[in-house]
């Protein structure tokens, strides 16, 4: 079936109407015509009709079906005969053109016709020219899937839908219209030529002959093509003599000239009398086209049955749909395919099987097929192990099976419950929508009203189905290792509730899920990722920052107690410790500019329609070119009248105009329009199409393109992107325990793949611990024992169930990480429990109780000793706290040494976290103590405690190096965060940007929060919610080069400059990069914004080659550009309409509007022989001061710009090797630097008073160079360090 239908797909059909394009046989553009891959007319052969009409008169019942035949096929190009000679004489045209054709038959002679008495007639002679690569064998059966029967009376027109799938999985779609024509006086006609059969001359046969018209398209425009065919059937009714070929050919040609709209908010409209046909666009490039009623399955099945069917599809069963309505088979099957998005069915998909194709259901592999209900018994009896779904009555059954009936697992309970509730809340009946509306007499208005209702409902159904998919697979990401592309399926299954495991066990083995994993590992930002991100809880956002072992929080423990059928619906990991717990009282856990907004349900998508110009016939080249010219002019007018801030629509118009230019053979114009997508909507840029244009462009036009810098850069980018795509690694591995001995490098990889820990230094310490007393390699048995002990401990922790009397003493985000055996203590008998904040005793007896032992921050001393009991010495742990006089003692016996290490490590980690305002230290300490526990449990030798001590990182640091933080630093430092969380190595922070909260009621509450943008290496950007310091968006990707600058140009735009010469523009509402500016030719080094009356008016960008560009912020057009006489432009500042440009050797001052050079500032300092590294302007009451630093210098120079000839004031910064960055905050200058201490690089921040010109504070907060500084509303300063530390410090401004 698949192979037969495949050849109907026409791969390249657009060369016809453009002589230039048609000249190159290699030019294979696929320009997305709406339809007319093929259009065909089908009917039964004439002789059969005549014979059956007479047979019907004699035996009116139980007539066998006739065999349909293809009468005409219309395949592009649609060229009139008058144009053929003209076109063929052109040397630019392809000689091997495909043509539409008609079936040709000789007029049979009277004597050769089969007589009524059964005499044999002579065979007809036929000559059918089938277009290349088109096979019509299976098409007639699918156009009449129930068989072709004559009728004694006319029947209603009938439309059904087809889907063809080739061997590569590519789908093509067909819409078939069946209609009946009367046959009178023995006259039957085909292709406008009467054919006469000598049967019963002069008498009416009383037969109605069925015809079918099939339109095949590359896109699933089911409703649009249904409307088109409905209009065509109305137009064909007046033709009594079957003279319809020319009309159908014009119909096919018209559809072929209609382009498919690009993704986004623009629908195309064209006139097909009596209806206006709308061609809908897809929502975004990764979304499917939806041109059908998505709620149809919800009308046919109960929500529980819909979930059953979804399970069958997700587990890749062999599925057969049944219905008495052929149209419903395809539409319902397609709806279920759309419910899966972004997952995709990857097996055989044939929603309609004709009666001759029923043996296809015997296929042994997974498939989804559809049959008429008449064949239900036959299919259920003949085929085994099928899921049989009756659309008409909503039944779901199984066919006979060799053993027992297969069990369909249930969808995970909580996801199912949410889905059912949402479906039950949907308004599925249009009649209820009309109750309060007046009657409309306008057909167009009725059509638009129904379409608007359906569009809204489709959006709700789509969102409901997507939410189901997200709820089912949300936690998959928690068991992925992105660096090594590993999915730990076993551990994922262990975290599923027992009742949900049968479902996941089956789904995890499917091709569909494997492709889903590839997309997750590639960090694809598709519909699933966007919804998953937007519905993350605050706990999930904080968990991204800490790769901690999974444990139940107290809050979840309580919910588990009150719900016996507790279903694990979230990954059970700990949350970050309460930030207040490690901050001074005035610390900023929430910036006051934030206002939490309670918004209502967001508005639905809004669309604009564009009316396609009329197409005039006859279809000759002049008419087609006139149509393209009109189309081009209409688009140009729309572009010129549209305001520049409506970039979404502008992008769609540029895209369409580029296609039209391409059809006209104007390749350079097409490339220019496609290049405009950079500044309007980069997501719809047709990379493959542009690459094909470039590869097949004539040398003369290619040289013209290379002479235009913007086109040359476009071409280079597209060809380079193709090479990058070829390098993409998309394999997926399942985690497996090692089978050979491991050296350090292999051990690091295996531990990271297992998901236990990612940090390289921690894994190195673990390697040392596991190899104590052995060669520096680890055998598979040791690794297995360690891994199993870790996972068993993790599983046991899930079963910890504290009584309510204990839970009420704990914070809701606390987790129990370790429990001792039952021990005797001076507080009573019980188990010692450890959380991330405290130790407490879980007392035993009649009623388990809670006794506080110590909060880690209150511990004063920890000792491991022994106490005498008779003749024995029992190992005992002693803990002394600040708040209690009584020392806690516990007779831990064999556990004593391990608990001693654990408590000391947690104590040291908590002190580090408090001193450095860095909650990650406590998380690292928790990981260390659990690794100690696993090492002791796995090794079981005399050296286990010594081995475990190798992991006491913080305790060793406390003992080896005094960790006192200077008082000034401690008082000013409020918090630290790590943008490299979850990565194998820390990454340098190149740029920081703070953007304030936005009071926009149309946005989600989280979108109103202030944000911190952090640029890491290789074009990565991490975004934090600055109200909680949790990661809001993990890892944008802006090219692959180093990012150099970031600025909030206006409320909805953040511009990011890169060393690849691009400026990337992020939409702060959608949090996506869909625009870029490419006018620079070298590294973009700085971007600034000019504001007038507080409103952004222009943006200025500069690049290292000395180019300065002034931008119109709304239109993104270049207002002015200037080339400075330098080759090392590093930064620019704007003050009083003057641009101050730092070029390394000097500072140039030019007027902002004319770019005229006003002054040149060169240092004349004898002791300075280096270049200007960074500078700032500091306006004072009467003066403007210029602050500058030089490479390799620890001195800060300050000039009065009114007297530049005078010697500048110099401030020497102690313990500084070089000044790296500076920003103005209130009346202070904050200076970031690099220095050395005890042979190590350190980062130091100096706060300099602008008035006194003295250093007010020296802040030591980083273990590497301070590379970036930014201000948060002049109340906080944020600093980022180099790759040795890779953290961000948040400082309070006095």
Walk me through this protein's architecture.
With 1294 residues, the protein is α+β, with helices and mostly antiparallel strands. Among the domains are: 2-111 and 125-263, Beta-Lactamase; 292-535, DENN domain, C-terminal lobe (Rossmann fold), CATH 3.40.50; 620-727; 1163-1294, YVTN repeat-like/Quinoprotein amine dehydrogenase (Methylamine Dehydrogenase, Chain H). The protein is built from 35 helices and 57 strands. Strands 22, 23, 24, 25, 26, 27, 28 and 29 form an 8-stranded antiparallel sheet that branches. Strand 8 and strand 9 form a beta hairpin. Helix 22 (647-663) packs antiparallel against helix 23, helix 28 (760-770) runs parallel beside helix 32 (920-939) and helix 31 (896-916) packs antiparallel against helix 32. The radius of gyration is 37 Å and the shape is flat. The relative contact order is 0.06. Keywords: Cytoplasm, Guanine-nucleotide releasing factor, Phosphoprotein, Repeat, WD repeat. InterPro entries: cDENN_dom, dDENN_dom, DENN_C, DENN_Domain_GEFs, TPR_DENND3, Tripartite_DENN, uDENN_dom, WD40/YVTN_repeat-like_dom_sf. Forms oligomers. Interacts with 6 of the 7 known isoforms of 14-3-3 proteins. GO terms for molecular function: guanyl-nucleotide exchange factor activity. Residues 108-118 have a biased composition (Basic and acidic residues).
């Amino acid at each position: 079936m698949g192979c037969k239908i495949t050849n109907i797909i026409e791969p390249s059909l657009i060369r016809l109407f453009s002589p230039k394009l048609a000249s190159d046989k290699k030019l294979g553009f696929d320009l997305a015509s709406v339809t007319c891959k093929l259009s065909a007319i089908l009917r039964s052969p004439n002789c059969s009709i005549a014979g059956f009409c007479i047979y019907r008169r004699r035996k009116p019942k139980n007539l066998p079906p006739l065999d349909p035949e293809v009468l005409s096929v219309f395949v592009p190009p649609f060229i009139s005969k008058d144009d053929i000679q003209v076109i063929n004489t052109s040397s630019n045209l392809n000689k091997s053109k495909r043509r539409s054709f008609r079936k040709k038959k000789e007029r049979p002679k009277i004597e050769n016709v089969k007589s009524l008495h059964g005499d044999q007639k002579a065979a007809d002679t036929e000559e059918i020219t089938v277009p290349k690569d088109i096979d019509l064998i299976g098409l007639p059966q699918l156009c009449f899937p129930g068989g072709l029967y004559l009728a004694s009376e006319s029947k209603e027109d009938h439309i059904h839908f087809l889907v063809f799938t080739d061997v590569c999985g590519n789908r093509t779609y067909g819409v078939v219209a069946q209609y009946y024509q009367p046959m009178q006086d023995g006259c039957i006609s085909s292709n406008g030529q009467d054919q006469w059969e000598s049967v019963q001359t002069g008498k009416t046969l009383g037969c109605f002959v069925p015809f079918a018209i099939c339109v095949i398209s590359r896109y699933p425009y089911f409703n649009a093509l249904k409307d088109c065919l409905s209009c065509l059937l109305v137009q064909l009714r007046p033709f009594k003599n079957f003279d319809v070929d020319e009309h159908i050919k014009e119909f096919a040609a018209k559809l072929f000239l209609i382009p498919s709209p690009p993704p986004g908010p623009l629908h195309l409209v064209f006139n097909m009398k009596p209806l206006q046909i709308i061609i809908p666009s897809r929502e975004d490039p990764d979304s499917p086209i939806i041109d059908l009623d998505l709620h149809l399955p919800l009308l046919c099945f109960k929500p529980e049955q819909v979930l059953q069917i979804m399970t069958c599809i997700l587990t890749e069963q062999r599925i057969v749909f049944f219905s008495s309505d052929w149209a419903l088979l395809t539409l319902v099957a397609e709806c279920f395919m759309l419910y899966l998005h972004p997952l995709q069915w990857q097996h055989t998909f044939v929603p309609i099987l004709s009666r001759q194709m029923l043996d296809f259901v015997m296929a042994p592999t997974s498939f989804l097929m559809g049959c008429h209900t008449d064949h239900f018994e036959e299919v259920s009896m003949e085929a085994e192990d099928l899921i049989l779904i009756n659309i008409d009555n909503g039944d779901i059954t199984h066919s006979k099976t060799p053993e027992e009936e297969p069990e369909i697992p249930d969808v995970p309970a909580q996801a199912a419950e949410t889905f059912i509730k949402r479906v039950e809340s949907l308004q599925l009946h249009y009649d209820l929508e009309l109750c309060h509306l007046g009657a409309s007499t306008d057909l167009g208005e009725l059509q638009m009203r129904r379409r608007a209702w359906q569009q809204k409902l489709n959006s709700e159904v789509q969102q409901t189905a997507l939410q189901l998919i997200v709820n089912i697979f949300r936690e998959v990401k928690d068991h992925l290792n992105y660096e090594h592309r590993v999915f730990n399926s076993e551990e994922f299954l262990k975290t599923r509730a027992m009742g949900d495991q049968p479902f996941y066990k089956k789904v995890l083995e499917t091709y569909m899920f494997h492709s889903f994993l590839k997309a997750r590992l590639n960090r694809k930002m598709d519909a699933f990722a966007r919804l998953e991100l937007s519905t993350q809880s605050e706990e999930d956002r904080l968990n991204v920052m800490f790769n901690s072992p999974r444990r139940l929080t107290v809050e979840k423990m309580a919910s588990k107690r009150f719900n016996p059928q507790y279903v694990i619906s979230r990954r059970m990991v700990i949350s970050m410790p309460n930030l207040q717990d490690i901050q001074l009282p005035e610390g900023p856990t929430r910036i006051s500019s934030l206002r939490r907004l309670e918004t209502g349900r967001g508005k639905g998508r809004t669309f604009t329609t564009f009316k396609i110009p009329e197409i005039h016939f006859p279809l000759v080249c002049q008419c087609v070119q006139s149509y393209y010219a009109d189309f081009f002019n209409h688009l140009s007018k729309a572009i010129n009248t549209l305001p520049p801030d409506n970039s979404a629509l502008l992008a769609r118009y540029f895209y369409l105009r580029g296609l039209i230019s391409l059809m006209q053979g104007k390749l350079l114009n097409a490339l220019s329009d496609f290049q405009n997508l950079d500044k309007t909507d980069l997501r719809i840029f047709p990379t493959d199409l542009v690459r094909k244009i470039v590869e097949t462009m004539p040398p003369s036009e290619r040289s013209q393109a290379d002479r235009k810098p913007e086109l040359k850069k476009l071409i280079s980018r597209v060809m380079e992107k193709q090479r990058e795509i070829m390098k993409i690694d998309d394999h997926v591995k399942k985690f497996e325990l090692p089978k050979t001995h491991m050296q350090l490098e292999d051990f690091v990889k295996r531990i990271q793949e297992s998901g236990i820990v990612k940090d390289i230094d921690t894994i190195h310490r673990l390697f040392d611990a596991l190899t104590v007393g052995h060669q520096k390699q680890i055998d598979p048995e040791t690794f297995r024992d360690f891994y199993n002990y870790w996972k068993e401990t993790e599983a046991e922790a899930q079963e910890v169930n504290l009584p309510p009397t204990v839970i009420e003493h704990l914070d809701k985000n606390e987790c129990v990480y370790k429990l001792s055996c039952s021990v005797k203590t001076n507080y009573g008998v019980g188990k010692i429990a450890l959380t991330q904040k405290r130790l407490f005793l879980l007392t035993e007896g009649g009623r388990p109780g809670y006794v506080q032992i110590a909060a880690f921050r209150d511990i004063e001393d920890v000792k491991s000793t022994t106490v005498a009991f008779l003749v024995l010495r029992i190992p005992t742990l002693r803990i002394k706290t600040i708040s209690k006089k009584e020392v806690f003692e516990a007779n831990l016996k064999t556990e004593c040494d391990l608990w001693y290490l654990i408590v000391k490590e947690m104590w040291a980690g908590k002190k580090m976290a408090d001193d450095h305002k860095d909650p990650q230290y406590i998380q690292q300490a928790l990981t260390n103590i659990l690794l100690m526990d696993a090492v002791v449990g796995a090794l079981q030798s005399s050296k286990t405690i010594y081995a475990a001590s190798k992991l006491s990182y913080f305790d060793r640091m406390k003992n080896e190096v005094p960790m006192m933080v200077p008082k000034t630093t401690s008082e000013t430092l409020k918090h630290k965060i790590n943008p490299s969380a979850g990565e194998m190595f820390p990454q340098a922070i190149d740029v920081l940007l703070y953007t304030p909260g936005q009071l926009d009621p149309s946005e989600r509450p989280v979108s109103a929060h202030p944000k911190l943008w952090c640029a890491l290496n290789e074009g990565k950007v991490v975004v934090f919610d600055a109200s909680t310091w949790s990661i809001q968006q993990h890892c944008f990707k802006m090219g692959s080069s180093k990012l150099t600058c970031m600025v909030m140009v206006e409320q909805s735009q953040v511009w990011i400059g890169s060393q690849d010469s691009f400026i990337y523009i992020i939409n702060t509402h959608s949090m996506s990069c869909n625009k870029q500016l490419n006018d620079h030719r070298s590294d973009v080094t700085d971007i600034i914004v000019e504001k007038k009356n507080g409103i952004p008016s222009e943006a200025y960008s500069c690049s290292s080659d000395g180019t300065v560009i002034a931008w119109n912020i709304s239109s993104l057009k270049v207002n002015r550009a200037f080339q400075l006489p330098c080759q090392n432009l590093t930064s620019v500042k704007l003050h009083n309409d003057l641009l101050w440009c730092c070029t390394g050797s000097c500072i140039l001052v030019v007027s902002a509007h004319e770019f005229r050079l006003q002054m040149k500032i060169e240092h004349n300092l004898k002791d300075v022989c280096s270049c200007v590294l960074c500078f700032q302007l500091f306006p004072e009451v009467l003066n403007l001061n210029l602050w500058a630093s030089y490479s390799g210098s620890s001195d800060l120079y300050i000039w009065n710009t009114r007297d530049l000839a005078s010697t500048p004031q110099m401030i020497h910064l102690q313990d500084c090797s070089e000044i790296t960055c500076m920003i103005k905050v209130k009346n202070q200058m904050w200076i970031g630097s690099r220095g050395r201490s005890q042979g190590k690089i350190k980062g130091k921040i100096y706060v300099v008073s602008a008035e006194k010109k003295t250093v007010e504070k020296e802040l030591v907060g980083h273990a590497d160079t301070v590379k970036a500084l930014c201000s948060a509303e002049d109340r906080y300063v944020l600093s980022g360090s180099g790759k040795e530390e890779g953290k961000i410090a948040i400082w309070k401004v006095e």
